[in-house]
Amino acid sequence: MPRTATRVEAVHDSFTIERNYRASPEKVYQAFKDPDIKRRWYAEGPGFIVDSYSLDFRVGGQETGAFRVDNPDFRSDEIRNDTYYFDTVEEARIVYGYSMSNAGTPFSASLSTILFERDDTGGTKLTFHEQVTFFERADGVKMRETGTRQLLEQLAKELGEPSETFDRGADA
User: Fold this and answer.
1) How far apart are CA 84 and CA 35, in angstroms?
2) 30 and 126 in contact (C-beta within 8 Å)?
3) How far is Cα 71 from Cα 73, in angstroms, rounded to an integer?
4) Confidence at residue 165, expressed as pLDDT on a 0 to 100 scale
5) pLDDT for 90-144, tens place per residue?
6) Alpha-carbon gap, residue 170 to 147, rounded angstroms
7) Strand pairing category for 11-21 and 167-169
8) Which of 22, 31, 65, 84 gets the most CB atoms within 10 Å of its CB?
């Protein structure tokens, strides 16, 4: 069934987040690559009901997830994330595209690049850059960046580090 709207919108935006982790690039990269580890920090969390999740981490592979939010402040219909991996360089780079939909209606499409660099302490400087197109009734770049920062905080917890002190926005 084709989408109809009185006014067609497509808002283009981007953001960059830099964040340091005490863990090595090998360990941080593994947290993106291993399906069990990634599911814990990426798909699960308080108030999230995971309906499905799968990860085929390789060039040409896909990652899919469907979840609902059920907490006192917000309840949602099914939100879907469908990802396609374009490029992976072990412990150095991941490039992927993904779309998000709510109750079957797409609301954004993105191209993301994650870089992993060893810092002076042997830890990891992670640089996350996303270019996104939002469709009608979409969340917008501020909400998307906030959500991404929350995911990177969940990653820090998965890695066992108190990394909120290491969080540096692109403007910092």
Assistant:
1) 15
2) no
3) 6
4) 45
5) 999 999 999 999 999 999 999 999 999 999 999 999 999 999 999 987 778 999 9
6) 16
7) antiparallel
8) 65
**HSE-up (13 A, CA, CB side) for residue 61:** 13
Domains in the chain, start-ordered, CATH in brackets?
Answer: 11-169 (3.30.530.20)
- H helices present in the chain, as ranges: 25-33, 35-38, 141-158
Kind and range of the H or E element at 95? Answer: strand 93-102
Q: Tokens 């990394």 correspond to what residue? A: 163
Q: How far is residue 148's CA from residue 98's CA, in Å, rounded to a whole number?
A: 13
Asked whether the beta carbons of 76 and 48 are under 8 A apart, the reply is no
Neighbours of 113 (CB within 10 A): 16
Q: What tens digit of pLDDT does each residue of 22-78 get?
A: 999 999 999 999 999 999 999 998 888 999 999 999 999 999 999 998 888 888 889
DSSP letter assigned to residue 157: H
How much is the pLDDT for 169? 42
Q: Which two tokens stand for residue 158?
A: 């998965």
